[in-house]
Amino acid sequence: MKEKIEKLEEEISVQREKIERAKKEIGNVIVGNGLLIEKILACILSGGHVLLEGVPGLAKTLIGKTMASSMSLSFSRIQFTPDLLPADITGTVIFDPKGMNFVVKKGPVFTNFLLADEINRAPAKVQSALLEAMQELQVTIGNQTFPMEKPFFVVATQNPIEQEGTYPLPEAQIDRFMAKLLVVYPEKEEEIEILKRMGGKEEPKAKSVLQRIDLLRSQVLMRDIHIDHRLLKYITDIVDSTRRPDKYGLKMKEYIMYGASPRGSLFLSLASKAAAFLDGRGYVIPEDVKWMARDVLRHRIILSYEAEAEEVTQDELIASIISSIRIP
Fold this sequence. Notes:
By secondary structure, this protein is of the alpha/beta class. It has two domains: 14-201 and 208-215, Rossmann fold (3-Layer(aba) Sandwich); 226-324, Helicase, Ruva Protein, domain 3. Helix content is 45%, strand content 15%. It has a five-stranded parallel beta sheet. Helix 1 packs across helix 3 (60-70) and helix 10 (229-240) packs across helix 11 (262-278). It starts with a helix and ends with a helix.
């Protein structure tokens, strides 16, 4: 096992160096947000999708566009609006008068990197048009099913403060996202740098420094990272405690209506492997699990009315769980 991990770490080192170049290129455009970008990269390596939540003007859209540019990925952006139709995303069947037959016109979902901007501005039937692509990596149009080109990655953004003209994401939709990441205000010094960088004649743009084949290779290597059985138990204990907190001596049952599903356990184990990859290791440690736990679980815990009334948040509950569950 030791020799296998050492050989894996040698391969990881080569691919990690290429990813570090992409991170540096992204940093030439995006000011700050280093931790946020690392966590998005962890999701990309895991083959998962990300929901970015933050108030307007925090560069959520720019982060998505810049990351796609640095990785040589085909990119599509869909601005979600109340009048959007599912066919505007997936595509539709149209009549070709020249050939006198019906042909498939593919939609913008057929790309490597899809930016679903303000996803909560479209109704559920439009949001759900992404479900098949996100889960099955395929899209059905008419009576034909088309596979997605790998890698396929969705970054969706939403504004948490507006209520008018918005539609909350259905639980089935939000559960497809590996992580929900919170975009926060920049520090004062970072904001000054933003003014310098974005206020000139030309805005900075990211160069393509990471090839698609290298990203696919990194995704394969990430799956080979070793995770001990005790850590798998640690992950399932964390997730199970969101469903049965009393079993773990946690006094929060009245605050949780529904806990995380087994998909939460799967995503947390994959995200932990990705965290190990980004740190250059061929094995997972407990800190990797802790690093991604809040992001993977915060949108999978449905709060009760009591929690909302007492202003208890998912992050507070997860912090309490992590501090209480025994580390192997």
